[in-house]
UniProtKB/TrEMBL annotation:
Annotated Pfam families: Epimerase (PF01370)
Swiss-Prot/TrEMBL keywords: NAD
InterPro entries hit by this protein: Epimerase_deHydtase (IPR001509), NAD(P)-bd_dom_sf (IPR036291)
Organism taxonomic ancestry: Eukaryota, Metazoa, Spiralia, Gnathifera, Rotifera
Protein name: NAD-dependent epimerase/dehydratase domain-containing protein
Family: Belongs to the NAD(P)-dependent epimerase/dehydratase family.
Domain NAD-dependent epimerase/dehydratase: 8-258
Length: 262
């Protein structure tokens, strides 16, 4: 008997995570477990609205148990063990993290606890339960400061410039160890700046839209406004996640998800 696919999406109530959950449910690829701690990095009400929207779009899947929402943390090892034992997870899309370069400079320990230790908790369970695919959402920030464009996956990532980037790079390296030691299939997706519906309020596209209707809104400008960003639309990012989750086993792979045109 072929084992049914069960997808665990950590950080599934957030901007990218909720779009990924939506796509997985649309495609009927298997059962979907949404795990999120609804933290206050930005208003938890935004995540709650994302989840309410998903529940209203897929009421039958909520009723039949093929879409399950769990309020919890990737640092809660007991909860994670229960989830893996009960639902027999086959695919993991790991998006749960503390984001933000500037905020990481004052909360380094917290970023390490969640972005590194939380990832290790998932990797350990994925290895022991022989998970089919582990897709990890990393960041273009791991490349640090460079004038070389576009970034390519083989570029050096040895000099991150923030605790956020360092914790993500450390988690990437730990994932490689689990691939080497346990044969766990790992795909690292290094995301560039993502925009689209339900975008995070701290990201520039949402700030600009807010400023267009609220003339009292103040937008901080850094480096004389000369900074350029590589923006990627949310649907393209979700395409990348689906392709990574559904591809044949690759061992360990790193893929940039961006346009290459800052």
């Amino acid at each position: 008997m072929v084992k049914a696919n069960v997808y665990l999406v950590t950080g599934g109530a957030g901007f990218i995570g909720s779009h990924l959950v939506d796509r997985l449910l649309q495609l009927n690829l298997g059962d979907v477990i949404l795990l999120d701690n609804f933290n206050d990095y930005y208003s938890p009400l935004i995540k709650q609205r994302n989840v309410s929207l998903l529940k209203s779009q897929y009421p039958n899947k909520v009723l039949d148990g093929s879409f399950i929402i769990i309020h919890g943390s990737i640092n809660d090892q007991e909860l994670l063990q229960i989830i893996f034992n009960k639902y027999q997870i086959t695919h993991i899309a790991h998006l749960a993290a503390l984001a933000g370069v500037r905020s990481s400079t004052s909360q380094t320990g917290k970023y390490m606890e969640i972005n590194y230790n939380g990832t290790q908790n998932l990797l350990e369970l994925a290895a022991s339960h022989k998970t089919t695919q582990f897709v990890f959402a990393s960041t273009s920030s791991v490349y640090g400061q460079t004038d070389k464009l576009p970034f390519i996956e083989t570029d050096s990532c040895s000099k991150p410039l923030s605790p956020y980037a360092a914790t993500k790079r450390a988690a990437e390296m730990l994932a490689h160890v689990y691939n080497n030691m346990h044969g766990l299939n790992i795909t690292i997706l290094r995301l560039f700046n993502v925009y689209g519906p339900r975008g995070r309020p701290d990201m520039m596209p949402m700030k600009l839209m807010h400023a267009s209707v609220d003339k009292t809104c103040i937008i901080d400008v850094f480096d004389d406004g000369e900074i350029k960003r590589d923006w990627t639309y949310i649907d393209d990012v979700i395409d990348g996640f689906i392709n990574a989750l559904e591809q044949p086993p690759v061992g360990y792979e790193i893929i940039n998800i961006g346009c290459g045109n800052p």
